[in-house]
Design brief:
Elements: H1 7-14, H2 17-21, H3 46-57, H4 70-78, H5 88-104, H6 108-114, H7 117-141
Helix pairs in contact: 1-7, 5-7
Length: 142
């Protein structure tokens, strides 16, 4: 049985697309370092921290063995054009992998965001959402 994901849940993440696309966006915030913190510690920007929280709230987390799927995810990173035709399941898997991997490899998510890979993922998610909206509109008009 497939999960039903309300449009509002997709919109929760899509609000980050213009933020992460901006050339002015900085994924880290050194001002968040507290006295006694080591200077090489990563302090994520408020937007990155909120993105992770919102991802978990969105019900887009995909329950699977993401560590065994890393090679496939790497294909999407190295070949962003592959994302242009993936379905919502692949988008969920890729997002889940990147957010979960951050727990074990500090800085992974920052690299994914700074490389604009997350932008490519969110653009595909936006396209999927638009396709769903127009399909629903068509269904209502029939």
């Amino acid at each position: 049985m497939k999960d039903i994901i309300p449009m509002e849940n997709i919109d929760i993440l899509l609000k980050y697309l213009p933020i992460f696309e901006s050339d002015k966006f900085n994924s880290t915030d050194e001002k968040l370092l507290k006295e006694g913190d080591l200077p090489f510690m990563l302090c994520y920007s408020e937007e990155v921290n909120n993105f992770v929280k919102d991802f978990y709230k969105s019900n887009l987390v995909y329950n699977f063995n993401w560590s065994k799927w890393q090679n496939e995810a790497l294909n999407y990173f190295e070949n962003p054009e592959f994302l242009k035709n993936v379905d919502i399941e692949i988008i969920r898997k890729v997002l889940t992998l990147h957010v979960r991997k951050e727990r074990f490899c500090e800085g992974h998510l920052i690299n994914i965001i700074d490389s604009k890979h997350i932008v490519a993922i969110l653009k595909r998610l936006k396209q999927i959402r638009e396709d769903i909206s127009s399909t629903k509109l068509l269904e209502r008009n029939i």
